[in-house]
Design goal:
The structure holds 2 protein chains of 2 kinds. Chain A is of the alpha+beta class. Chain A is built from 14 helices and 19 strands. Among the domains of chain A are: 214 residues, Multidrug efflux transporter AcrB transmembrane fold (Up-down Bundle); 78 residues, Eukaryotic phosphomannomutase, cap domain (Hypothetical Protein, Haloacid Dehalogenase-like Hydrolase, Chain: A, domain 2), CATH 3.30.1240. In chain B, 61% of the residues lie in helices and 8% in strands. Classes of the chains: A alpha+beta, B alpha+beta.
C-alpha cells in the first residue's frame, strides 16, 4: 500500500469516526442507554415540531398601536405646554396613528405656537400648516420605521420572557416572513393552546389613573357635568367585564404610573382572601405614585389594564412603592396576570395569523412513517446496487452509508432541526448519492468495454465523471438555495438537508468511493472487475 | 449485468411526437385546472383543519358532515372530511375553508366550533389530535414567495448552464424544466392532490432532479463534440443520449424506488410530496431524453443554418462574427 493511499484511507476513516460520534452515537446512546459525555449529548440532533408535537403560531405585531401611543403622548404634551403658555386652541385631535391635527390657533399667537410646537414635537414630527390657523403634525417616516422595528423587537423580547416563564423547553421565537412585523412562536410539547395563546397575546398595558368622574351607569350620566362632551384631555373607560363591573369612568388620557414603573408582580390575596396581584414599583415609579396619591387623597384611583378598569379604590393615604390589583380573579388568572406584568407590557397588540397544533401522537405517527419509508427505500436501493453492481455495489453502499453518517453528523453539529420534510431530504440525498455512483460505475463499464485495464478504467471513470458531478451538484445547490430563501420552517429543513447532503455526497462519491477501489486494487491485482 | 448493451436508438426522430404528447398532457391539465381548479393546500388557501382521533371505530364521514351541518348550517356541505393516515389510526381530517376573525384571539374560533359541533352531534368519543389554522394574509404571502422562488431558481439554472455549456443547451434545459413543472401541475390536477408547501418542495426538488438529468446528457454532448467535430449536432446528441441511457434508467429506477417507498410508507403528511416526486421523476427523465436535447437541437437549427452546426458550416455561408458561438471549440470554462 503506498503512502498516498494510506493517507486517503486514514482521512476517510477519521471523517467517518468524527461524524459518527457527533451524529449517530448520541441517537444510539439514547436508544440503548449507552454512556455519553454531556457535551456530546447537548449537540444531539433536535426533532422539529412536526415530529415532536407542539404548537406553531405566527403572529402579527400591530405596530400602528405603538405609533399611536407616541402620537397621543406627543399631542397631550403639546396640550399641556400650550396651557402653561396660555395659548388656547379650539382642538387637538389624533387623526391617524402617525398624525394629529391642531385647530383654531389665534392669529396673533401663531409665532409663539409654532415655536412652542417645534420645541415639543420637531424631533419626531413634521409640521405643515393648513387653512385658518390649523396645523397638521405627521410623524417623520424614518422615525415611524424605527419605531415599528422597535415595537416588533420589543414584542419579540416580551414574548420570549413570557414563554420562558411558562417553562417551555426549547421554544423558538423569531422574526418571520418578509413584512418585518410577523413573529414565529414554536412551543414544543405544549398542549394547553388556549392558555399559551392568551398569555402571549395579553398586551398587559397597566396604567394607574385618577378617576375624574364616575363611576356611572352610562356614558350620558357620566358626562352630564361636562355638557355631554368628553373633555379633550380625558377619556371614558369601562369596567372590565370579567370582574362584573360595567360602569363608566372618566379619567385623564396620560397615566400617572404605568407598567414600565413596575419592579415586580406576584400572585397574592386581598383582605377578603381572594386571589389578587401584588406589585411593587421602581424608585422612580414610587416617587410618581407617591405624588399622584398624595395629591389626590379621597379620590378614586383606577387600575387600568388594557384600557379596562379592573378595580377602582379610594385613596386613603399617600402610597409609594406597593400596591395590589384586586377584582374577581381565579388563582390561575392571577398567576398569569402576574406573569405578564412581570415580563413587561407588549408595545402593541398582536393578532394571530396562523396556528398549527400537532398532537404528540400525530408527531409520533409521522416519525414512524418517515423512518419506515426511509429504511424501506434504503433497503430497496442497497439491494438493487448489490445485485446490479455485485462487488462494486458494496463500494457504493459503503459510500452511501458514509454519506448518511456525514449528513447526520453535520446536521447535529450545526444544530439543525430534523423535520418531516427533512426526512424526505434524506431520501432524496440517498437518490443523489446512488446517482453519482451509477454515473461513475457506468462510465467504468464503458471504459472496460473499450478494453482498457482495470486500473485505467477506474481512474478514467472517476476523472471523467467528476466534472459532470460538479455541474449537477451545483445546479441542485442553486435550486436548494432558492428553496431555503423561500421556505418557512419545515421547507427550510428540507433545503438544509439537501444542501448538506449534496456537499457530503460530492465528497463520498468522488473521494471515499475512489479510495475504496484503490485499496482493493492495491491488495489484489486483478484483470477483471466485479461490476 | 447490463440493462441495455450499447443502444442505438434514434431518440431525436421522435422529437415532434414527444413535444406533441407533452402539449397534449399540459393542455389537458390546463383544461382541468380551468374547469375544476387546482386544489390548494391550507397554507395557500387559508382555512381551518381539525384532526380528530376517535376512540372507537369512526363514524361514516356523512354522519360527521350532518353533525357539522346541524350546528353550522351551510358549513357541513363545504367541509372536506377525509380519513387521515392508516385506517387503524382512526383519525379523520375535517377542513373548512375559512377561519375565525383574524383580529385578536379569534383565529381559532372556527376550529373550536367544528369540534363543538362534532361533540354535539354525539357521533362517538374522540380527542382532537391536531389542528392547523391559516389566516388569509399568510396564504397570499406564500403564493408570491413561491412564484419568485420558482422564477429565480429557473433563472439561476439558465445562467449556470449558459455559463458552463452554451446558450442553446440552457434553453433546452429551461424549457424541459418548465415542461416538467407544467406536466406535474397537470397530474396534480388530474389526481386532485392539494398544492401544499410540501408539494412545492417536491416540485422544486424535481426541478433540480430534472436539471440534473439534463446536465448529465449535455455533459456527454459537450464531451462528444470535442471528439467528433465533423458530425452534426443531431447525431452528437443522439449518441450522448444513448451513451447515458443505462445510467438514466438506473438512476430514475432507484430514485423511483425511494419515492414509491415514501408514497407507500411515508404517512399522510408525505403523501402529496411522494406523489409529486413520482410524477416528477418520470417526467423529468422523459423530458431530459426527449425534450431538453430536442429543444437544444431545434433551437440551434433555428439560430444557425438548419442541420449543420456552425463549426462545420463553411465560412463563406456564415461569416463568423465575434459573437458567433462555436460549440466545438468552446471548452468548459
Amino acid at each position: 500500500m503506498n503512502k498516498n493511499l494510506r493517507w486517503k484511507l486514514l482521512t476517510s476513516l477519521a471523517v467517518f469516526v468524527i461524524f459518527f460520534a457527533v451524529g449517530v452515537y448520541p441517537l444510539m446512546a439514547q436508544h440503548f442507554q449507552l454512556p455519553i459525555p454531556g457535551w456530546l449529548a447537548a449537540r444531539q440532533l433536535k426533532l422539529g415540531l412536526d415530529l415532536k408535537g407542539g404548537v406553531h403560531l405566527v403572529l402579527r405585531v400591530q405596530t400602528d398601536d405603538a405609533l399611536k401611543i407616541t402620537t397621543t403622548t406627543t399631542s397631550e404634551q403639546l396640550r399641556e405646554a400650550l396651557k402653561t403658555a396660555g395659548i388656547t386652541v379650539s382642538s387637538i385631535a389624533v387623526t391617524s396613528p402617525t398624525s394629529f391635527h391642531v385647530e383654531g390657533i389665534p392669529q396673533e399667537k401663531d409665532g409663539e405656537f409654532t415655536r412652542l410646537a417645534d420645541d415639543q414635537t420637531s424631533v419626531n414630527f413634521q409640521r405643515s400648516s393648513g387653512a385658518g390657523g390649523s396645523y397638521d403634525f405627521t410623524m417623520r417616516p424614518n422615525i415611524a420605521v424605527t419605531m415599528r422595528e422597535q415595537a416588533v423587537t420589543q414584542a419579540r423580547e416580551t414574548i420570549d420572557r413570557r414563554v420562558n416563564e411558562l417553562g417551555v423547553a426549547e421554544p423558538i421565537i423569531s422574526l418571520y416572513g418578509q413584512s418585518n412585523d410577523e413573529i414565529l412562536v414554536q412551543l414544543p410539547g405544549v398542549t394547553d393552546v388556549a392558555r399559551a395563546k392568551e398569555i402571549i397575546r395579553n398586551t398587559a398595558i397597566l396604567e394607574l389613573k385618577i378617576v375624574e368622574a364616575g363611576p356611572a351607569g352610562s356614558q350620558e350620566a357620566l358626562l352630564q357635568q361636562f355638557g355631554g362632551k368628553i373633555p379633550e384631555e380625558m377619556e371614558v373607560l369601562q369596567g372590565a367585564a370579567a370582574s362584573g363591573d360595567s360602569s363608566f369612568y372618566l379619567a385623564r388620557k396620560v397615566a400617572g404610573v404605568t407598567g414600565r414603573d413596575l419592579r415586580a408582580a406576584r400572585a397574592t390575596i386581598d383582605e377578603n382572601n381572594r386571589p389578587a396581584v401584588g406589585f411593587s414599583l421602581t424608585n422612580e415609579g414610587a416617587r410618581k405614585f407617591g405624588k399622584v396619591t398624595g395629591d389626590n387623597i379621597g379620590r378614586l384611583l383606577a387600575i387600568v389594564l388594557d384600557n379596562r378598569v379592573v378595580s377602582a379604590a379610594r385613596i386613603e393615604s399617600k402610597i409609594t412603592d406597593e400596591g395590589r390589583i384586586t377584582g374577581t380573579f381565579t388563582s390561575q388568572q392571577v398567576a398569569d396576570l402576574a406573569l405578564v406584568l412581570r415580563t413587561g407590557a407588549l408595545p402593541a397588540g398582536l393578532t394571530y395569523l396562523q396556528e398549527h397544533v400537532i398532537g404528540p401522537s400525530l408527531g409520533a405517527d409521522s416519525i414512524r412513517s418517515g423512518v419506515t419509508a426511509s429504511l424501506v427505500g434504503l433497503l430497496l436501493v442497497v439491494g438493487f446496487m448489490l445485485i446490479y453492481y455485485k462487488l462494486s455495489g458494496v463500494n457504493a453502499v459503503v459510500a452511501l452509508i458514509f454519506n448518511l453518517v456525514i449528513l447526520l453528523g453535520l446536521m447535529a453539529y450545526i444544530g439543525a432541526t430534523m423535520t418531516l420534510p427533512g426526512i424526505a431530504g434524506f431520501v432524496l440525498t440517498m437518490g443523489i448519492g446512488v446517482d453519482s455512483n451509477v454515473l461513475i460505475f457506468e462510465r467504468i463499464k464503458e471504459e472496460l468495454a473499450a478494453q482498457r485495464g482495470v486500473r485505467a478504467s477506474i481512474n478514467a471513470g472517476f476523472s471523467r465523471v467528476f466534472l459532470t458531478l460538479l455541474d449537477t451538484h451545483i445546479a441542485s445547490l442553486i435550486s436548494a438555495a432558492f428553496l431555503f430563501q423561500f421556505g418557512t420552517g419545515p421547507i427550510r429543513g428540507f433545503a438544509m438537508t439537501l444542501v448538506i447532503g449534496l456537499i457530503s455526497n460530492l465528497f463520498t462519491s468522488t473521494f471515499v468511493s475512489k479510495t475504496l477501489f484503490e485499496a482493493v486494487l492495491s491488495y489484489r491485482q486483478t484483470a477483471t472487475l466485479s461490476i | 449485468m447490463q440493462i441495455i448493451k450499447t443502444p442505438h436508438f434514434d431518440f431525436l426522430r421522435w422529437r415532434w411526437f414527444a413535444i406533441g404528447l407533452s402539449w397534449l398532457i399540459i393542455l389537458a391539465g390546463a383544461a382541468v385546472i380551468k374547469t375544476k381548479g387546482l386544489p390548494l393546500g391550507i397554507e395557500f388557501s387559508g382555512g381551518t383543519i381539525v384532526i380528530v382521533q376517535f376512540d372507537q371505530q369512526p363514524p361514516d364521514p356523512s354522519v360527521m358532515r350532518n353533525a357539522l351541518e346541524r350546528a353550522m348550517p351551510g358549513e357541513g356541505q363545504n367541509a372536506i372530511i377525509q380519513r387521515y393516515g392508516q385506517e387503524s389510526a382512526r383519525q379523520y381530517m375535517i377542513r373548512v375553508p375559512d377561519v375565525g376573525a383574524e383580529a385578536g384571539a379569534g383565529l381559532s374560533e372556527k376550529a373550536d366550533r367544528v369540534l363543538a359541533a362534532l361533540k354535539a352531534g354525539n357521533i362517538g368519543s374522540f380527542t382532537p389530535a391536531g389542528r392547523e389554522i391559516v389566516g388569509p394574509a399568510v396564504g397570499q404571502d406564500l403564493r408570491s414567495k413561491g412564484k419568485w422562488a420558482m422564477i429565480l431558481s429557473l433563472l439561476g439554472i439558465l445562467l449556470y448552464i449558459a455559463f458552463r455549456f452554451q446558450f442553446s443547451f440552457a434553453v433546452g434545459a429551461v424549457v424541459a424544466t418548465i415542461h416538467d413543472l407544467l406536466v406535474t401541475f397537470a397530474f396534480l390536477a388530474f389526481f386532485r392532490y392539494d398544492l401544499s408547501l410540501n408539494v412545492i418542495a417536491a416540485i422544486l426538488t424535481v426541478t433540480g432532479y430534472s436539471t440534473n438529468d439534463t446536465i448529465v446528457i449535455f455533459d456527454r454532448v459537450r464531451e462528444n463534440i470535442r471528439g467528433m467535430r465533423r458530425d452534426n449536432l443531431y447525431d452528437v446528441v443522439n449518441k450522448a443520449v444513448n451513451q447515458t441511457l443505462g445510467r438514466t434508467i438506473i438512476t430514475a429506477g432507484t430514485a423511483l424506488l425511494s419515492a414509491v417507498a415514501l408514497f407507500l410508507f411515508g404517512g399522510e403528511v408525505l403523501h402529496g410530496f411522494a406523489f409529486t416526486m413520482i410524477v416528477g421523476i418520470v417526467t423529468g427523465t422523459y423530458s431530459s431524453v426527449f425534450i431538453a436535447a430536442a429543444i437544444a437541437v431545434i433551437w440551434q437549427s433555428w439560430v444557425k443554418k438548419p442541420g449543420k452546426m456552425a463549426t462545420s458550416a463553411p465560412a463563406a455561408s456564415a461569416p463568423p462574427t465575434p459573437k458567433t458561438r462555436k460549440p466545438g471549440r468552446r471548452r468548459a470554462s
